[in-house]
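Aim 2, interim progress: modelling of the NDP-bound target.
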Amino acid sequence: MTVLVKPQKLDDLKVREFRMLIDGKWVEGVETGTIERIAPSHGVTVSRYAAGTKDDANRAIAAARNAFDNGPWPRMTASERSGILLKAADLISARADELAHLDAIEAGKPITQVRGEIAGAVDIWRYAAALARDLHGESYNTLGEGTMGVVLREAIGVVSIITPWNFPFLIVSQKLPFALAAGCTAVVKPSELTSGSTLVLGEILIEAGVPAGVVNILAGTGADVGAPMTSHPDVDMISFTGSTQIGRLTMANAAQTLKKVSLELGGKNPQIVFPDANLEEFVDAAVFGAYFNAGECCNAGSRLILHRDIASDVTARIAALSEKVKVGDPLDPTTQVGAIITPQHLKKIQGYVSGAAQDGATVAHGGSQIDFGMGQFMTPTILSGVKPEMAVAREEVFGPVLSVLTFETTEEAIRIANSIDYGLSAGVWSSDFDTCMTIGRKVRAGTVWMNTFMDGASELPFGGYQQSGLGRELGRHAVEDYTETKTLNMHIGRRTGWWMPR
Ligand code: NDP
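Predicted structure of the complex, ligand included:
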């Protein structure tokens, strides 16, 4: 059983129409096509965007290039840039309800959850505004009488920012404010499925005082608009979040002109649980980690690695709590799990569940589609008896599906955790300090949570090992990622060269 929240009809919904932001103006695409977004929860059109093309990408890149090379943004004082970012944060906060509604209806995400994401985004914009004023290089007064060295941090230039559909506003907020804080200009492409809140961000940034051409926002598909953003010679850096497959393609495109690349890709994140853990707290975190955002989350705790002695008891407790999870209408404030992003994606998730059953796993809970007569939804699902070599234990399902594996020794748990290509995040549950620290140091992942799961803060860097990505977002180094380092090597006094006597 699952607690169902049937979606209410959207009788008074006004379809939102969006254009693209290029060089400070809201424009149609060079071609006249449009993209219709059908709400994954309600099956009706909720937004229309201009369908951008390569020509639009070229226009946007030219505007960003000109704004960087000739405009005021990189030349302002950090204090001025910081002030504009703080204003943007205030305006995001003022329009939080509108932004939350757009992300909820376009992505099928629970409204209460999205409100939290928008509040988190406001905090990130404020944090980036603070870092803008602390960006500095180094000086070396230790190189001898005749030498002084200064290391500058300069904005890298034009940044292509490409974001996915699962956290539309939060993910653009993990990238854009830091690029702006450094003095960069940007071309932003949200997913064609969830472009609304990013386009509203364009209105906010204009109102906050970001000059024309500094932030350009395109609508359109990855093939039409995203690909040119990764190969254009006038782009200096790419910041991408999405699938590992497109991440690889992005890196290959960027290699042609040797752009800097920052990639935040997939994950298959383990939670390792020892018998001495606080199991009540863990069970809650397991359910949260697996079903938060319908499991459409790179950080999802989709792989439980339970000590054999507790595996069947803990699995039963997780199944019991899974029954209480409220699934359905993303606009109902009590909903915890919303819709699946597209019908094709639901099919992909169900393919993983049936494939796991064929491979010998047991569907211990859920596993089925929910029919509300509109949209696409799925029950929270638990697969037990999963073996490390099964596809469902190694690949990113990106749905509300929890795989349960078991271990006997700490070494075996670490081996299983590290046996896949990903390395984004991991969790360890134990009341023993040594156990937590051993796992924390030996699991190859960008974040390891100890006796908690999927917590975060603007101050804490986020990113992956191995095929989960390159580089880190958030944290105090996030601004530096959008800079080049320049050395000023200065001579004091008469210079003695290679042909002059020393
Ligand atoms: P993609 O990697 O396809 O999309 C991410 C972004 O890249 C979107 O804006 C997309 O545009 C764009 N894009 C697509 N093709 C190209 C291209 N050739 N060049 C440049 N940009 C491109 O992810 P999907 O959204 O299709 O999801 C597929 C799978 O990826 C999921 O099932 C999940 O496993 C994983 N994923 C991981 C995420 C994470 O946070 N780590 C986030 C999202 C997905 P558009 O969508 O408009 O075509």
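The longest strand covers residues 147-155. The chain has 15 helices and 25 strands.
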